Amino acid sequence: MTVFLVTLIIIGGLTSTGVYLLLERNLTRMLLGLLLIGNAVNLLILTAGGASGNPPIRGRTSNGATTTADPLAQGMILTAIVISMGIAAFVLALAYRSYRLTTVEEVSNDPEDTRVSQQSGEEIEDVVPVPDLTRDTDAPDELDALPGFEGSK
């Protein structure tokens, strides 16, 4: 039972460190955070796959094991490794392009996001239109998609 506990503690440590690095403004630290989270997920899938056993091939045995290993966990981990390497390549290309353009690896705030976040709640409420309850919406008018069509009678 202690083996499972140690594995879960390692998974939690990798995940928390990866999330901490992912929240940084530096692209290299973001990449390291993504890789740590990917490795933590791989360990979690391996742990959830169950104990080791015979290969999932008919007639093969391994060290006298009585159960068969689950091949689904191994296939999922291989797929997750390929996906994480693709993401790592994309983030490396993004970091390289960003460094070539700005010679800074830090991600700065977007000016439009900053402007929107600084708006007060009163300004946003003024923009919301108030519906006119006295207008009959059943009669066709100039805003309908087919103004001359009155439907089947």
Automatic annotation (TrEMBL):
Keywords: Cell membrane, Membrane, Transmembrane, Transmembrane helix. Coiled coil: none annotated. It is found in: Cell membrane. It is a multi-pass membrane protein. InterPro entries: CPA3_antiporter_subunitC (IPR050601), NUOK/Mnh_C1-like (IPR039428). Residues 106-153 are annotated as: Disordered. The keyword Membrane applies. The chain crosses the membrane at residues 6-23, 30-52, 72-96. Belongs to the CPA3 antiporters (TC 2.A.63) subunit C family. This is Multicomponent Na+:H+ antiporter subunit C. It comes from Mycolicibacterium frederiksbergense.
